[in-house]
Amino acid sequence: MKSKLLFTAIILNIFVIAFSAYMLLSGIEKYRTADRVHTELETHVHLHEPDDYVTASGPNQDEAAERYTVDDGIQWPQIDFDALLAANPDTVGWLYSVDTPINYPIVQGQDNEYYLTHLFDGTQNASGCLFLNAGNEADFTNTHSIIFGHHMKSGSMFSSITRYRAQDYYEAHPQLLLMTPGGDYILRPFSGYDTDVDSDSWQLLFDDYANWLQGIKSRSAFTADVTPADSDPTITLSTCSYEFENARFVLHCMMTARK
Length: 259
Prior knowledge:
It is a single chain. By secondary structure, the chain is an alpha+beta fold. It has one domain: Sortase, Chain: A. The chain is built from five helices and eleven strands. It has helices at residues 2-41, 61-67, 81-87, 167-172, 209-218; strands at residues 45-46, 68-71, 74-79, 91-96, 103-107, 130-132, 144-148, 176-180, 183-196, 234-240, 247-257. The strands form two sheets. An eight-stranded mixed β-barrel has the order 4-5-6-7-10-11-9-8. The longest helix is centred in the N-terminal third of the chain and has 40 residues, at 2-41. The relative contact order is 0.12. The model is unreliable at 15-28 and 49-68 (pLDDT under 50).
């Protein structure tokens, strides 16, 4: 009897170990698939490299202009939206933040569910995509637009925005760049904090927009030198937070069109 119990226990342990190994390898493979898809997409984005820089009168001016352009000291990536739209018509923009993992396309689905579990190319994957709220205009013309992204353990997607809890991180990353088929924008964070899913952080319609701005700025974990006026549109970057049950981290940014 004891030998049978021992044999059963051994079989169960082997099963548990095998299943755990399978789940671990499956998770690693999903991360690898997501990384591969994102890496392939980066062929449509040209970022500044140290040896790319040339003066306006330099002999390689035209070649450098194909890689990036500089306006008011900001090095703007060049995005091939024709190629991205051909690959996925849901493409609405590209979000980039210097010296962070954020360098991703933004899509917009028919709802706020599909791109939680699908990559840019339609592959089902827990990493998902950065996606614009389905209730927003695709050209970012709303008073308040919302972009969602997962908080991945690998540090990818929107994991890095939770670092805006720290003042020094904000000071090192005072802006993000949003490129769209219709125009480019500077996103200047002015408030970031953990909040409950029932808060007004994702509000889209306003009776008093100025009062809403004042309220969300007062919650910020960092102090910003940016104070949007009630005529300034905002974009919120939203991700999961693990500070408490049903927590989210939101980063509110003032949106300014590229000059």
